[in-house]
C-alpha cells in the first residue's frame, strides 16, 4: 500500500474511533462509568487503530502529518484513555501515545508547534538544538532557559555583573527570551480560538506563568536596553503567522524597525508547512 493510502486509511480508522468516543463523552460525564460493553467495543477499535499506526511508526513524515491534521481529536482520545484509569486503558494509552506518537504526559497546545516552526530562522537556529526538546521552545538554554533561579540570575538579569562579556551574553538572552515570549503571547491571544480550547490544569498554569514571566522579562529588557520599548505586530494567513514586525521605541518614538517574513505551502498530506527561507526587510 502506498504511503498516501496508508495515511488515508489511518485517518479513516481514527475518525470512526474518535466519533464513537466523542459520542460517549457527550452521553456520559467523564467521571461516570461507561457501560463495559461499550468500553470493550471502543478498546477493540483502538486496538485496530494501534495496528494501523504501528505499520507507519518508522515513517516520521506520515506520523507528523497525522498529528498535525488531527491534533485536537488526538488530544481528546488521549484524555479519554487517561480518565478511564483502568489497566486496559493505560495499556492502550502507552502503546499509542507513549511508544508511537511520543506524546509526553503534558500535551502542548497546537499553537506551541506552530510557534516553534515560525521562529525557526528568525530567533531559533540549528546550533540551538538540544537532546531533550523544551516545551514551549523558548525554554531552551539559548533563550529563556529552564525557569530556575540560577539560570535567571546568570542570563536573564542585566545586573549582578560589571564584566562587558557577561553583560553582552545576558543581553542576548534577555532580548531573545523577551521577543519569543512576545511572539508566543500574540499567537496565544490570536489563535486560541482556532485550536483546542479545553485547557488542562497544567496548561492553565503554564499560561499564567507565561504572563508573569512576560512582565518580568519586559522589566529586565527595559533596564538592559536603556528604556527601549519593544513591541511587535504579527500578520496571519489562514491562522499561521507569516510576517513579524519588530518595533523599537524610545520616548514613544520609533527608532528602529525590523520585518521578517516566512511563506507557507501545503504538503501532500494536507499539512501547512513553512519554507525554510526567511525574508528580512
How would you characterize this protein structure?
The chain is 54% helix and 13% strand. The protein has a four-stranded antiparallel beta sheet with strand order 1-2-3-6, with helices on one face. The chain has helices at 3-27, 36-55, 60-69, 71-84, 87-100, 110-119, 149-156, 164-191, 201-224; strands spanning 229-237, 240-250, 253-261, 264-266, 272-274, 279-280. The chain folds into two domains: 3-100; 110-280, no CATH class. The model is unreliable at 196-206 (pLDDT under 50).
How are the SSEs ordered, and which strands pair?
Layout: H1 3-27, H2 36-55, H3 60-69, H4 71-84, H5 87-100, H6 110-119, H7 149-156, H8 164-191, H9 201-224, E1 229-237, E2 240-250, E3 253-261, E4 264-266, E5 272-274, E6 279-280
Antiparallel strand pairs: 1-2, 2-3, 3-6, 4-5
Helix pairs in contact: 1-2, 1-4, 2-5, 4-5, 6-8, 8-9
Protein traits:
281 residues; alpha+beta; four-stranded antiparallel beta sheet; two-stranded antiparallel sheet; 9 helices; 6 strands; elongated
Shape: elongated
Major β-sheet strand ordering: 1-2-3-6
Strand content: 5-15%
Give the radius of gyration: 22 Å
Fraction of helical residues? 40-55%
Uncertain spans, ≥5 residues at pLDDT below 50?
Answer: 196-206
Mean pLDDT: 81
Number of helices: 9
Total domain count: 2
Main sheet overview = 4 strands, antiparallel
Question: Could you state the order of secondary-structure elements as H and E?
Answer: HHHHHHHHHEEEEEE
Structural class: alpha+beta
Q: State the end-to-end CA separation.
A: 46 Å
What is the count of β-strands?
6
Amino acid at each position: 500500500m502506498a504511503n498516501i493510502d496508508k495515511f488515508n486509511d489511518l485517518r479513516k480508522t481514527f475518525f470512526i474511533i474518535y466519533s464513537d468516543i466523542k459520542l460517549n463523552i457527550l452521553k456520559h460525564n467523564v467521571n461516570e462509568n461507561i457501560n463495559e460493553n461499550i468500553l470493550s467495543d471502543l478498546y477493540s477499535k483502538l486496538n485496530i487503530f494501534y495496528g494501523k499506526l504501528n505499520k507507519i511508526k518508522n515513517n516520521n513524515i506520515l506520523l507528523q502529518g497525522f498529528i498535525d491534521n488531527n491534533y485536537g481529536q488526538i488530544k481528546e482520545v488521549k484524555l479519554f484513555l487517561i480518565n478511564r484509569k483502568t489497566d486496559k486503558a493505560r495499556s492502550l494509552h502507552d502503546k499509542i501515545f507513549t511508544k508511537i506518537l511520543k506524546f509526553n504526559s503534558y500535551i502542548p497546545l497546537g499553537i506551541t508547534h506552530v510557534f516553534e516552526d515560525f521562529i525557526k530562522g528568525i530567533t531559533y537556529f540549528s546550533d540551538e538544538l538540544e537532546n531533550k526538546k523544551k516545551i514551549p521552545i523558548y525554554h531552551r538554554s539559548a533563550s529563556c532557559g529552564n525557569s530556575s533561579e540560577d539560570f535567571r540570575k546568570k542570563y536573564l538579569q542585566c545586573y549582578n555583573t560589571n564584566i562587558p562579556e557577561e553583560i553582552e551574553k545576558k543581553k542576548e538572552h534577555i532580548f531573545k527570551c523577551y521577543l519569543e515570549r512576545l511572539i508566543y503571547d500574540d499567537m496565544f491571544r490570536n489563535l486560541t480560538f482556532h485550536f483546542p480550547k479545553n485547557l488542562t490544569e497544567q496548561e492553565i498554569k503554564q499560561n499564567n506563568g507565561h504572563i508573569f514571566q512576560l512582565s518580568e522579562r519586559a522589566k529586565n529588557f527595559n533596564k538592559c536596553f536603556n528604556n527601549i520599548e519593544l513591541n511587535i505586530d504579527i500578520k496571519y494567513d489562514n491562522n499561521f503567522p507569516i510576517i513579524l514586525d519588530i518595533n523599537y521605541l524610545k520616548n514613544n518614538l520609533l527608532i528602529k524597525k525590523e520585518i521578517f517574513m516566512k511563506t507557507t505551502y501545503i504538503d501532500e498530506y494536507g499539512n501547512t508547512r513553512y519554507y525554510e527561507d526567511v525574508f528580512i526587510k
